[in-house]
Design brief:
CATH superfamily of the largest domain: Pseudouridine synthase I, catalytic domain, N-terminal subdomain
Shape: elongated
Low-confidence stretches: none
Largest sheet: 9 strands, mixed
Helix content: 10-25%
CATH architecture of the largest domain: 2-Layer Sandwich
Number of helices: 6
Oligomer: single chain
Order of helices and strands: HHEEEEEEEHEHEEEEHEEEH
Number of strands: 15
Amino acid sequence: MQKKLIKLLVQNTNFSRKQILQFFKNQEVTIDGQVVNQDFENFIGTEIKIQGQEIYSWWTIYLAINKPTGYVCANIDNLHSTIFEILEPKYRNIQNLHTVGRLDKDTTGLLLVTNDGQWTHSLTSPKKHVEKVYLVTVDQKIDSALISHFAQGVQIGPNEITRPGQLEIISSNQAFLTIDEGKFHQVKRMFKTFNYQVTNLKRVQYGKLKLTDLNLKEGQTLLLSQAQIEQIKK
């Protein structure tokens, strides 16, 4: 976001240019706790305040959540708790906030949330092939033959074949699966094709962004830095 801070504040708040200039003069505009001047430009993924008040609702925002089980990826659901209910209150009223793709109710792990529709499209479009890595636990010992089966693509429905996936077996009934698309219940259906039932599913990586690098406990949210945002699509 290479636009001078004063211009963005004028365009996206109810303050006049004169008022904003006075805020700068009074050193009342801060980013990540540091006083900034009106020419500041590099502020993606940062905490911006005027007179100590957070103004997240006026910015494009990028969040990572370590999703616990039991929550659905929807803004409103009359039957189930939604992922937005566990966000910190300061994030909940941001307009157009949505998940980048979905994780099933019983699936845990790395979930991205943003109000940037173009960014979401760049990560979820079938043409982009952004890799996601899942830790999969199944109900029986995994046959090593599954590695080659997945590498060839798997027919998971009539006229529905997945792109090649990379399977790394790490224990008798656990493996990491890397895929670069997001068909409906894809991971579960890939294993079901070969008579395995997925008993636990956790997304551990999106692009090059790893959940282990974020130090997030289940249910916690992190405001992504510019470096982390860029890391996803490296």
